[in-house]
Amino acid sequence: MALTYDDYLTDLKHAGDPDADAVVRELLDNGQVNSVNELFREFGAADQDVPSQAPPVLADYLEKTRSFPDWMESQRLDDIAEFFQHHHLAASAIQATAGLVGTYLSPVGAKTLLSTHQLSQQPHRRLSQSTRLFMGMGDEDAFTDRSKLVPTCQKVRLVHAAIRELHRRSGEWDTQRDGAPVSQLYTAGAAVVFSVGALDAMERIGVSVTEREADGFYYAWRVVGHFLGIPDAYMPASRAEAKNLWDEARDREWARSDEGVLLTRECIDLYESYMPPGLEGAVPAFLRLALSDTYADMMEVPRSAYDLGADALSTGASALLGSSATQNAAVRPVLDALSTGVERVSREAFTHGQETEPQMSDRIQ
């Protein structure tokens, strides 16, 4: 029987990630977090040896968590490849904008994201590290033994564990009210936002995706969720089940928060800075179309004179059917510019000496 949102609240709101949490506790106790962050730069592919200087607890974790799940079906990889062949850049742009704002619409999630000194007030760095995962999902080897995506997920999992442990030690996080920081509820919810939520946004802006492609994209996120430490039983087995969960959770979970509004404004400002002449105001207009006015209003997304059309579906796109083309002609140049911007955010962070690897924090604000 499919799990309901109430099941997720009961089971996951206070749940951490025992394997990753144990690693982080030892690293923090031994003052090894900063040296481990240095090691992260030397471990970038699933078939690469763990650096010999890695602390034993980290080496054991990296070895234990690098294998693909037993339930992964090789034939489903063709469905994943089909999606990313047609929609890699569009999906990355949507995840890096509407998808991230979707996670900011979780008040506890937004509060947590701003809680560590390494991520607060650094939108360029924060967004470049997020786009690393989105872009990596479309790599040719992403779901093979040569994957660079798998180590990225392993590192993100430890970053989440570090935030949990630091808040536990601070004694300032209201666990009774808010649950565990970066709880399994939040991580599983983010995976649903970035999968079926992204597909919903693609439909709203007029990007037409076949059923096979959509199933492949969701399946990719089931695999990614496994590597992020989400218990397999809590990633719905099918896209239909995930969509039902998404519809229920979104209405109950999403709400305005000061932290969410701030994060959304930083996201808009950053990507607006990458828009070419003539597309000023296109990013907030894009977000309003992708999220709907209801949720855009919660995050105080400004209204723009840029017109993307009141209804993308009126141009002929149908829900998850048809060609891979963008049917809303007004959206196409904006989506192309955003795709370029997402790539540049990641590339320029690296070339400007900013950290693009996921990094654990050893303190909170």
UniProtKB/TrEMBL annotation:
This is Uncharacterized protein DUF2236. It comes from the Bacteria. It holds the Pfam family MPAB_Lcp_cat. Residues 90-304 form the ER-bound oxygenase mpaB/mpaB'/Rubber oxygenase catalytic domain. InterPro entries: Lcp-like, MPAB/Lcp_cat_dom. One of its GO terms (molecular function) is oxidoreductase activity. It comes from Haloactinospora alba. The lineage of its organism: Bacteria, Bacillati, Actinomycetota, Actinomycetes, Streptosporangiales.
